[in-house]
Amino acid sequence: GAGVSQSPRYKVAKRGQDVALRCDPISGHVSLFWYQQALGQGPEFLTYFQNEAQLDKSGLPSDRFFAERPEGSVSTLKIQRTQQEDSAVYLCASSFEGGTEAFFGQGTRLTVV
Amino acid sequence: GIQVEQSPPDLILQEGANSTLRCNFSDSVNNLQWFHQNPWGQLINLFYIPSGTKQNGRLSATTVATERYSLLYISSSQTTDSAVYFCAVDLNDYKLSFGAGTTVTVRA
Description:
The complex is a heterodimer. Chain A is built from no helices and eleven strands. Chain A has strands at 5-7, 10-13, 19-24, 31-37, 44-50, 53-56, 65-68, 75-79, 88-95, 103-104, 108-112. The termini of chain A are far apart. In chain A, 36% of the residues are buried. In chain B, a hairpin with a 4-residue loop joins strand 7 (59-64) and strand 8. Chain B is globular and about 40 Å long. The A-B interface holds A 31, 33, 35, 37, 41-45, 48, 50, 55-56, 89, 91, 93, 98-107, 109 and B 4, 30-31, 33, 35, 40-43, 45, 48, 86, 88, 90, 93-101.
């Protein structure tokens, strides 16, 4: 596609609910990243995929967070048993390969109530 | 991990003024990007500039990798330049580390 596409744009979840956030990267981009951005701060790295392989998940804040990219294209970030501290904007980015220019999607704003 | 410091944290400009935003980083990097974030939250690419100087219209950027800093110049600022500007660096070919951003407000 023309750019990185994320859905939904906004998600309100009740505490304890599971959520799934989708990212559709730029066609042909090997690398895919997830970032979390709290209000008033810069984005923080969550995880990195090269094709379908998850090479770094060191930024995932807890074992309630899980990401996958089974066919090396679309990725899903899943958060189980959401907590209020999970409220943030979740940004997806892709690049042709690691170390090249990264392009970001519009983000999903998650609010846990 | 690598430290990325942006200054100033806030910048208020009169329309037509010029300004310089600074990004300092604590280690040698393979990649440096400047973004601005629009009111809807999307990060818009401005420059991919691990070293050297680039210009795009009224914006230009310079990275001096050996001295671990980058500068973003905005000339003849317009109200539409109002945004949060982020610098991001990576030292291992994938993980971007972001600064806290500079909030630029341009007044008419």
